Amino acid sequence: ALAESVEVSEDGKTYTFKIKSGLVWTDSQGRKVADVKADDFVAGMQHMMDAKGGLEYLVQPVIAGADDYITGKTTDFSTVGVKATDDTTLVYTLVEPTSYFMTMLGYSCFAPMSRSFYESKGGKFGEEYDNSAETYKYGKDPSSIAYCGPYLVTGATAENSITFKASDSYWNKDNINIKTIT
Q1: Which of 137, 157, 168, 172 is in the most buried spot, having the most CB atoms within 10 Å?
Q2: What is 143-159 written as a DSSP string?
Q3: For residue 40, which phi and psi values (nearest 5 degrees)?
Q4: If 0-12 CB within 10 Å is exposed, 13-18 middle and 19+ buried, where does residue 168 land?
């Protein structure tokens, strides 16, 4: 939904996405915190691999260089086949043609993450990643997450409920039919 186009190389191993312009990241109050950039998809993928939360196995055999980065054979994320060549161009390089790759993009491990907002909340990448650091505040509550999707988390009670409200900043806000979800 955030791309305006995609091109697939003749060999089926390179996917080039043109990210829509004018998309924004907002805080939990709907205030703009940054523009959505192609690099935010790179940041999201690196964060997923650094955090090792259990989903990395989905991309490990598919994205070029992912296995070496995840297993620690390299600490250089630039060797992984996820690159932003400019603010609106995102390129995935695969190990081999993967007929189901486009459907994989719906998996949460492909979600973008605002690099600038993440870093402003103490987030670090690579060997410096440490979500237990005292300075790491990203994702600790709804106000420490940046949003670019159709909903904002406006309330959360541990082990009880989460409330989502339609975002006025979402690019397709006029087509959101459900305004609040609890």
Answers
A1: 137
A2: GGS-B-SSEEEEEEETT
A3: -65, -30
A4: exposed
12-16, 86-90, 152-156, 175-179 — which is least confidently predicted?
152-156
**Mean pLDDT across 78-84:** 98
3-state secondary structure of 32: strand
Q: Give Cβ neighbours of residue 79 (< 8 Å, ≥ 6 apart).
A: 65, 68, 69
Whole-Å CA distances, 95 to 34, 59, 62, 79, 126: 32, 10, 6, 12, 22
- CA distance linking residue 81 with residue 4, whole number of Å: 21
83 and 46 in contact (C-beta within 8 Å)?
no
